[in-house]
Amino acid sequence: MNGNDDTRYGPGTRVTLAGRTAEWTGTPGHPGAVVNPPVWRASTHLYPDMAALRAHPANADGQFYYGRRGAPTQWALAEALTALEPEAAGTVLYPSGVAAIAGVMLTVLRPGNVLLMTDNAYEPSRAMGRGLLRDFGVETRWFDPLDPAAMAAAICPRTRAVLIESPGSLTMDVSDVPQLVKIAREHGLVSVIDNTWASSLGFAALSQGVDIAVMSLTKHVGGHSDVMMGSASAGASWYRKLRLRAQTMGTVVSPDDAALLLRGLRTMDIRLQRTTASALALAQWLAARAEVAHVLCPMLPGAPGHDLWARDFTGGCGLFSFVLKGGSSAARDALIDALALFGIGYSWGGFESLATPVDPAPIRSATAWPPAGWDQADRFGIRLAVGLEDPADLIADLEQALGVWRNARETAA
Ligand SMILES: *Cc1c(COP(=O)(O)O)cnc(C)c1O
């Protein structure tokens, strides 16, 4: 596949053009006849004759061969994601974001290797280190995502790779990714980023020096809470290895799901603009509230990580967290229950807003929660996934729910 990083266009134009190969959206006599590639449901691919079967190019992209290698619907999605990731040579699709992380890890790591992981990584990524990877002889070590020296200090002769997540799940810490990647390069490590939060539109991971960029497409690319998929994009050498390993593992995604993701992709830029602006409005409003101790939103000037975000990112999203001033777990539950416009659920990136509690303490091993320097009573966080509703309505909903929280806190006291 061609890394068509047509960066002379803006992101809205790029998501409109990406992956619309005329050959896959038409017939031989009429290439590009329709806008979207049809849903090619195909396990069997047919050869016109034996000569064609014998002449089939060995394992090439974009060639009919057998269903496990996909057909034009999946190829178009992979090609679109490659086009949106500057410097990518190709993209492998996986049935979920977690499957993408596992597929990458099982490509990069060998028994006896050590993997470094930012301490704020998505819990299922951490669980992979404690479970799957350990069972295959890989040791995982976690480090403070805000301290490049801690990463450097954790490297040993067996260290093979680093998995970075930035901003990190729940606490939204922004790492100095170029610095972490530089340390990785100096020690011959493979750098992998879980780029789900920013997507390739908000953080050009490979251009920043990362070797492999993973996304859960379930979130921003899907955008409608009705489909799951993951991706890994890389330069030519890693792309070839990822693709072969995915084939060996029988990794395949359905053409129906690929079509849903292509549909989501076309509006991703405009949705992200809207959710970023709304999240910033909510974050600003929360930062001024007496009930709120900390707002963890990289887009918010003055918030932790804002300077690095402003330096390295070209966009944000609707996902951020805030921490209440004191209170209790029960009072926080009452607040979340009182929200009318925020669903309670573990995902994000959909058109609808969501709220979930943030309790990272039990799942961190290299950093403290609450962080040192905070009033230790300020520990009950809430993560908001801001959707496409009107921000004024969301703010009014938060305002009434904070009233419920104040009552619940006083009743408990
Ligand atoms: C949701 C998520 C994943 C996993 O994606 P699925 O598609 O749900 O498997 C990975 N990383 C991050 C940061 C996520 O938020």
Shape assignment: globular
Radius of gyration: 22 Å
What is the number of strand segments?
Answer: 11
Please identify, by name, the CATH architecture of the largest domain.
Answer: 3-Layer(aba) Sandwich
Q: What is the end-to-end distance?
A: 62 Å
What structural category characterises the helix and strand content?
alpha/beta
Q: What's the total helix number?
A: 14
CATH class identity of the largest domain: Alpha Beta
The topology string of helices and strands comes to HHHEHEHEHEHEHEEHHHEHEHEEH
Give the total of domains. Answer: 2
Strand order of the largest sheet: 1-7-6-5-4-2-3
* Beta-strand residue percentage: 5-15%
Residue windows where pLDDT falls under 50 for at least 5 positions: none
Main β-sheet description: 7 strands, mixed
- Ligand types: pyridoxal-5'-phosphate
Can you tell me the CATH topology of the largest domain? Aspartate Aminotransferase, domain 2
Overall mean confidence score, pLDDT? 96
Indicate the percent of residues in helices.
25-40%
The CATH homologous superfamily of the largest domain is named Type I PLP-dependent aspartate aminotransferase-like (Major domain)
